[in-house]
Amino acid sequence: SYELTQPPSVSVSPGQTASITCSGDKLGNKYACWYQQRPGQSPVLVIYQDTKRPSGIPERFSGSNSGNTATLTISETQGMDEADYYCQAWENSTVVFGGGTKLTVL
Amino acid sequence: QLQLQESGPGLVKPSETLSLTCTVSGGSIRTISYYWGWIRQPPGKGLEWIGIINYSGNIYHSPSLKSRVTISVDTSKNHFSLKLSSVTAADTAVYFCARQMHGYGGNYFDFWGRGTLVTVSS
Q: How far is the C-alpha of B107 from the C-alpha of A78, rounded, in Å?
């Protein structure tokens, strides 16, 4: 079955840029999306179709997808960005989630 | 604004069937571009996809859960449902329902319910 691999954790200082990767076989040939999940809350879509931001998501959030890796980039990181982030793709008629990355802002 | 609300028992006994309903408000479930899905999250763990269904009853399932899962839709009530049979403690999780944009432009969940915790215990 298809797998998406994310680093378990990423740390960033406030105001700096955070990058979270998501790796999968030929992932660049599919669309990737990203969700933010704060503790005790539902996931929120922050990037879809590799690079697009839903209404209401700050421009600080951006995405890319090429080769085997999709990347979520958060610029000028703020404390409110501290959360779990999940990538997701559609492969062989199934939804596949990455294992999630805990972003710590310290 | 679209809203999704999960409902159902919060406690299910082992070997029994878990049943949840997701009621959609602020929009119609009879929309061609969308599927309606179930995702779960065991305590302290990541997201696990269960399955999706569209208004006409077309379904995609997680291969790992397919044998135990039944997903159905009732367009007259604007809701869809999940049944998971023969539950064990490993099925204890927060269960989310969500709307999935489905098509050539990608498949992603753009609206989520708040989730409901289901505990499997005797």
A: 29
The first and second tokens of residue A75, run together, are: 């610029």
Q: In chain A, what residues touch B60 (CB-CB under 8 Å)? A: 93-95
Instruction: Using alpha carbons, select from A29, A14, A54, A61 the residue that is nearest to residue B108.
Output: A54
For residue A36, the one-letter residue type is Q
pLDDT digits (tens, 9 = 90+) for A45-103: 999 999 999 999 999 999 999 999 999 999 999 999 999 999 999 999 999 999 999 99
- Residue B76 pLDDT greater than 90, yes or no: yes
Contact check, Cβ <8 Å, B62/A43: no
Q: Which residues of A touch B52 (CB under 8 A)?
A: 95
B105 vs A31: CB contact, 8 Å cut-off? yes
Chain B: residue nearest A42 by CA?
Answer: B114
The DSSP secondary structure of B17-79, one letter per residue, reads -EEEEEEEESS-S--TTEEEEEEEE-TTS--EEEEEE-TT--EEE-TTTGGGEEEEEETTTTE
Residue A92 burial by Cβ neighbours in a 10 Å radius (0-12, 13-18, 19+): exposed
On whether the CB atoms of residues A93 and B61 are closer than 8 A, the answer is no
